[in-house]
Design goal:
Blueprint: H1 2-17, H2 21-33, H3 35-38, H4 44-61, H5 65-91, H6 95-101, H7 108-117, H8 119-139, H9 141-168, H10 170-205
């Protein structure tokens, strides 16, 4: 079970700190209205991802196990691409650009809508977390639930931390944001290599 917890925490942390529409909403709201008003929006993924997970699990459950196992390769390549993207963003990090590009309007419902329309959760649950969750669920329902709890606890806590940092001091928050982005690049790289290793492992078993 520990391996599933680590995988869930690693990918969730990387997803939370990656620059994107939802993060821009959270930063903007934190800068304009403070952390108390913004914190509820950090729960947007918990609300919006439900239908996405159900859809991904339905599709994965109705295709052959060999194809699901091959998705580890696709997931590994996708995660390594995210790692490269995070590394490039870290190198070219611009705190002023992050703050200025954030939208000036946000609510929990808007944050949920933004995340639901964002292709990242669909790709993440189809190529990366979906096969892992399905495998965990087949081993034990408890493992699957633990994976989901680890993933969403990490993503919510990480986003709440970002909200608090930017609401208190945008300059300090931006500096820490760069550190978190660098850590996410390292985490994603390790995650991607692990996914590829899983693909090779399942290929050798068949």
């Amino acid at each position: 079970m520990l391996s599933y917890l680590i995988l869930g925490i690693t990918f969730a942390f990387a997803a939370a700190v990656q620059p994107g529409p939802l993060q821009s909403y959270l930063i903007s709201q934190a800068l304009r209205k403070g952390w108390k008003h913004t914190l509820p929006a950090a729960f947007a993924p918990v609300i919006s991802d439900g239908p996405i997970i159900i859809l991904a699990m339905f599709v994965l459950s109705n295709i052959s196990e060999s194809i699901v196992n091959l998705l580890y390769f696709a997931g590994g390549v996708f995660v390594l691409y995210l790692a490269m993207d995070a590394w490039k963003a870290w190198k070219k990090f611009d705190s002023e650009k992050i703050i200025q590009s954030a939208s000036s309007r946000t609510t929990l419902s808007q944050a949920v809508t933004v995340n639901f329309l964002n292709p990242a959760p669909y790709l993440g649950w189809s190529l990366v977390m979906g096969p892992i969750l399905l495998n965990a669920w087949r081993e034990s329902y408890f493992y699957g639930i633990a994976l989901l709890l680890a993933f969403y606890t990490t993503i919510v806590v990480s986003q709440m931390a970002i909200v608090i940092l930017f609401s208190q001091a945008s300059r300090l928050g931006a500096k820490i944001e760069r550190v978190l982005l660098g850590l996410s690049a390292v985490g994603l790289f390790c995650f991607g290599i692990y996914e590829l290793w899983l693909g090779v492992k399942f290929l050798q078993m068949n």
